[in-house]
UniProtKB/TrEMBL annotation:
Record's protein name: LysM domain-containing protein
Species lineage: Eukaryota, Fungi, Dikarya, Ascomycota, Pezizomycotina
Comp. bias (Low complexity): 89-113
Keywords of the record: Chitin-binding, Virulence
Classification via PROSITE patterns: LYSM
């Protein structure tokens, strides 16, 4: 058997990292200042992580991908940054603010029921009362990653956590607890 000689090994060429060789996916918003290509073996989750964006941002800037990222096509570029100052996408450095709504006729028991564990962090008004499983948002979490981790749909997640308003940007804050399971 011949000895291995690294100088004789040819390395396969990788796709150009700049994404210039890939077409921009139709439907990207105007004002995009940076595009990045989705290439194999990327998944939606890895594309979001690589570009440090949320699924809400990807969908807002590239509506063709779908709210659940099911139409992220490999071999195309997507908008990953705009010149607009985000107003509806909360970052981990934002300080959550809520406007308290007085509810003098509604009382809440301080004792959690045995079938519904108490939330392990702050929650938003409107979260379903029969929640029995929670997820506390970390810095890298997205609505999509949470639903995948807990085996639920985005529709269920939004229904159980209506403060998020189906965009995963409004009221989606690190350290807050969101419902990921309900009792029947």
């Amino acid at each position: 058997m011949a000895a291995y000689n690294a100088a004789l090994v040819t390395k396969p060429s990788l796709p150009e990292e700049t994404g210039l060789s890939y077409p921009i996916r139709e439907g990207a918003i105007e004002g995009c200042v940076e595009y990045n290509a989705a290439i194999a073996p990327m998944t939606c989750k890895s594309f979001l992580a690589l570009n440090r964006i949320t699924i809400a941002q990807l969908f807002k800037w590239n509506p063709a991908v779908g709210a659940d990222c099911s139409n992220l096509w490999l071999g195309y570029q997507y908008c990953v940054s705009t010149d607009a100052v985000p107003t509806d996408i909360a970052s981990s450095t934002d300080t959550p603010t809520t406007t308290p709504t007085p509810t003098p006729t509604k009382t809440t028991s301080a004792t959690p029921s045995p079938t519904a564990p108490s939330a392990p962090g702050p929650t938003h008004p409107g979260t379903v009362e029969n929640c029995d499983e929670w997820h506390v948002v970390g810095d890298s979490d997205t609505c999509w990653s949470i639903t995948q981790e807990h085996g639920i749909t985005l529709d269920q997640f939004y229904k159980w956590n209506p403060a998020i308003q189906n965009d995963c940007g409004t009221n989606f804050w690190p350290t807050y607890a969101y419902c990921v399971g309900v009792s029947a």
